[in-house]
Amino acid sequence: MTKRIFRSICLVAFAVFAASLVLIMGVLYGYFSNVQQNQLRMQTMLAAQGVSDEGSVYLDHLETRNFRITWVDASGEVLYDSHSDTSQMENHLEREEIQDAFEKGYGESRRYSVTLLERSLYCAQRLEDGTVIRLSVAQNTVLTLLLGMAQPICIVFLAAIMLSVLLAVRLARQIVKPLNELNLNEPLSNREYDELSPLLRRIDSQQRQLKWQEAELQKKQRELDTIVENMKEGMILLNQTGKIISINPSAAKLLNADHHCVGKDILTVSRDLELQEVLSKALGGEQTERTMAFGGGNYRLEASPVFSDLESDSELQKVVSGVAVLMIDVTEKERAEQMRREFTANVSHELKTPLHAISGYAELLQNGMVQSDDMIPFAGKIYAEAQRMVQLVEDIISLSHLDEGARDMKQEEVDLYGLAKAVILNLESEAEAAGITLELSGESAVMKGIPQLLHSIVYNLCDNAMKYNHRGGRVDVIIKNEETSALLLVRDTGIGIDPEHQKRIFERFYRVDKSHSKQVGGTGLGLSIVKHAAQIHKARIELHSVKGEGTTVAVRFPY
Ligand code: ADP
Asked: Which atom of ligand 1 lies closest to the CA of 494?
């Protein structure tokens, strides 16, 4: 910018100088030409007067150093010339000023010499005798004037240039200095040039916009970082050479790495061959998925190549610029899948046994192989097996209903004591038949719950306490109000459960003694239903059992 200002100022100075020179020269030249012309006119008149009075004698004594005098007769022949030999001179009749003088008495003209460096002024006057006196003077042209003044012009020109340069440098510095000192962090605080105000206002508004955009971007980045940091899925971003660009804490934990691994090759972090295979496929542009074991769990590994456009030979090509790896915990899903498979197999197996028995008995009856006395016991067996199946199907339906969360059932105020009383009333005849004393004690405990589910909890626990008991044994059902929960306690003096089985009896179809369970009409689903129903009520189950002494199950329903 300084250079530009400097150049402009110099150019203007030069142009002004040249224009002034032309103007001054023009005016001066015009003025001196007029003066010279007037002088010549005057001298012509004087010479004409002299020649009229004295004839050629006048011309002989005339000082003609500064001008040329010519005397021409009426036919144009030169009678006298102060600078040339008259015999050598041509006829002057054709000359413009002489013709005018012959015609009008006086004539003037100007002519350039061959070189254009000199101009001659001519004045001619007719005398009374018909002859013409002509005076001419050489006049310098503008060009000769210029050449003659070359030295002073050069001096003035150099002085002007030096002054312009000095001025230009100072001026350029003065203009540029405030611009260099502009405070662009606070554009509106600059007051030096009013002309810059629109620009500064624009800069200020753009800066504010940029700051806002930056804040927004940072906010979004923070949000994204928080999500990535806290997500339980592992996430790794690799560049095209397999170096780690980003890794979230979940992924680092699974690979036993720390945050220092960023920038390192993934192969230095994990030597797992299966992982390497998945990553190399993804780096080759192939979306790859695999289930792998990490940190004691099963993880679904999804490696997706990240493509970007590359321009080569004016064609857009897609190239792999990195890989995004997602590690999703599928341990629970796989466990649930496994459980579902086991459940289906168990259900089929459990249903198959009574069905085979029923079909066997029915076949015998059909073939007439059963004597009439045995008919009733056979029918009884078919009925018992069918009942088992009904019980099994009912339990399966209850369980799947509980698996769905029992959303259609409504919670209401229930007195646990009243509910237990109803269950015991139901089981009294059964207990009597088995020779077991079934007793309820405790107090009223009103809680919020689903009556049907609470009923199945009390029923299944009492049913088990009776089923796995001895003749003459006891079952005590106790209801209590505790500080933060309602307590249901079912205590029996039955066969008890070995510690090794205690953990598993709440699993589906798990029985300690399969044949005994079947004998007493168990399906292996009773305690699973209790567990699920308790979970829906956020209740805690505690089991205390001693083999050969009895079992106590406590269920605490929080208020
Ligand atoms: P089942 O229909 O076979 O009774 P449950 O799920 O109710 O199935 O119980 C699972 C197993 O736990 C039973 O088969 C039994 O071996 C054991 N069990 C449950 N309750 C008791 C108890 N009160 N005393 C001894 N064993 C019990």
From this structure: 24
Which element (helix H / strand E) includes 216? helix 197-230
Report d(CA 464, CA 475) in Å as an integer.
Answer: 10
Q: Does residue 167 fall inside a structural domain?
A: no
Q: Find out whether 164 and 9 touch, Cβ atoms under 8 Å.
A: yes
Interval 366-400: pLDDT, tens = 998 888 888 899 899 999 899 989 988 998 998 88
Q: What is the pLDDT of residue 116?
A: 55
Give yes or no: residues 424 and 315 share one domain: no
Q: Compute the average pLDDT of residues 346-357.
A: 89
Nearest to 493 by CA among 471, 476, 474: 474
| Same domain for 438 and 541 | yes
Query: How far apart (Å, rounded) are the C-alpha atoms in residues 501 and 545?
Result: 10
pLDDT value at residue 117: 66
Using pLDDT thresholds of 50, 70 and 90, give the confidence band for residue 185. Answer: confident
Residue bearing the CA closest to ligand 1, atom 8: 524
> Can you give the CATH number for the domain in which 351 is found?
1.10.287.130
In a domain, 26, yes or no: yes
Residue 521 lies in a domain: yes
Asked if 424 contacts 417 with a C-beta cutoff of 8 angstroms, the reply is no
Which residues, at least 6 apart from 95, have a Cβ–Cβ distance to it below 8 Å? 109, 122, 124, 134
Domain containing 11: what range? 2-148
In testing the pocket of ligand 1, which one of 347, 468, 504, 542 has its CB within 8 Å of the most ligand atoms? 468
Report pLDDT digits (tens) over 294-317: 878 899 999 999 998 887 767 778
Does 181 map to a domain?
A: no
Phi, psi of 6 (to 5 degrees): -60, -50
Q: Which of 530, 556, 528, 522 is nearest to 542 (CA)?
A: 556
pLDDT at 514 over 90: no
Domain boundary among 329, 347, 374: 329
Q: What is the count of structural domains for the chain?
A: 5
Q: 485 and 470 in contact (C-beta within 8 Å)?
A: no
- Residue 492 class from Cβ within 10 Å (0-12 exposed, 13-18 middle, 19+ buried)? buried
Question: CATH no. for residue 283?
Answer: 3.30.450.20
- State which ligand 1 atom lies nearest to the alpha carbon of 525: 6
- Taking 90 as the threshold, does the pLDDT of residue 494 lie above it? yes
Distance between CA atoms of residues 150 and 174, nearest Å: 35
Span 70-99, pLDDT tens digits:
999 888 898 888 888 888 888 888 889 999
Residue 27 tokens read as: 């005016």
119 and 248 share a domain? no
Judge if 387 and 513 occupy the same domain: no
Ligand 1 interacting residues, C-beta cut-off 6 A: 460, 464-465, 467-468, 492, 494-497, 505, 510-513, 517, 522-528, 551
The domain boundary residue, chosen from 329, 350, 365: 329
Query: What separation in Å is there between the alpha carbon of 453 and the centre of ligand 1?
Result: 18
For the whole prediction, is pTM greater than 0.70?
no
Distance 546 CA to ligand 1 centre (A): 14
